[in-house]
Design a protein that fits this description.
Largest sheet: 5 strands, mixed
Radius of gyration: 16 Å
CATH class: Alpha Beta
Number of domains: 1
Strand order of the largest sheet: 1-4-5-3-2
Distance between the termini: 20 Å
CATH architecture: 3-Layer(aba) Sandwich
Structural class: alpha/beta
Order of helices and strands: EEHEHEEHHHH
Number of helices: 6
Number of strands: 5
Mean pLDDT: 79
Shape: globular
CATH topology: Collagenase (Catalytic Domain)
Length: about 210
């Protein structure tokens, strides 16, 4: 699970922009659920017809949980307002290309996040929704991890969507404290969806 400084943009709506640096969560209310556009760019995802609905539900739960904690990267502190993000459902070959191009790591991964640049000025109420950023999720890696960890595919996909979304709004795991904060929030969001703690097995084996 990684955040890229400036992620890949092979599709019309999937555009990458560089993030200026990690931001600490602050008390800013969520005033709307972002519009989440799911782009299926690999045919292999057709075997999971519920993927889009699973992702939409996970993003909505994440938004509700971070109410009061959201980093407002869009309007300088006035709430999330009208915003959108794009999620690209790709395969291992596609995400490997993205990983290589933007992170210099020539191998597939499960999810990559590409936060959008903060706006240069304040926007009016009639402006089009602003981009939070983009997320890419690879099918084969997601499936193999779910099987290895003996989790339902939908549960693992929900986790990856939540993880990617939290990167878009400023959360990271570069330090131990950041990792604890981000993982705790993921656990709480997933619990609202009825999904068990995704880190429980790891904690038991440490």
């Amino acid at each position: 699970m990684q955040r890229a400084a400036a992620k890949r943009a092979p599709e019309r709506r999937f555009r990458a922009q560089q993030k200026s640096g990690p931001m600490a969560p602050s008390a800013v209310p969520v005033t709307a659920i972002p519009i989440t556009e799911v782009l299926v760019v690999a045919d292999i995802w057709q075997s999971e017809p519920r993927a889009e609905a699973v992702i939409q539900r996970a993003i909505e739960a994440a938004c509700m949980m971070v109410d009061g904690l959201m980093v407002d990267r869009l309007t300088g502190g006035s709430g999330l307002g009208a915003a959108e993000l794009a999620i690209m459902l790709t395969d291992d070959a596609g995400i490997r290309t993205l990983n290589s191009n933007w992170r210099g790591i020539d191998k597939p991964t499960n999810v990559l996040s590409f936060p959008a640049l903060p706006p240069s000025g304040r926007s009016g109420p009639d402006d089009a929704p602003r981009m939070l950023g983009d997320i890419a999720i690879a099918f084969q890696t997601t499936l193999s991890e779910a099987r290895e960890e003996q989790k339902p595919f939908d549960h693992h996909l929900s986790h990856l969507a939540v993880h990617g979304f939290l990167h878009l709004i400023g959360y990271d795991h570069e330090t131990d404290d950041e990792a604890v904060a981000m993982e705790t929030l993921e656990q709480n969001i997933l619990a609202q969806l009825g999904i068990p703690d995704p880190y429980a097995d790891r904690e038991r084996t440490d």
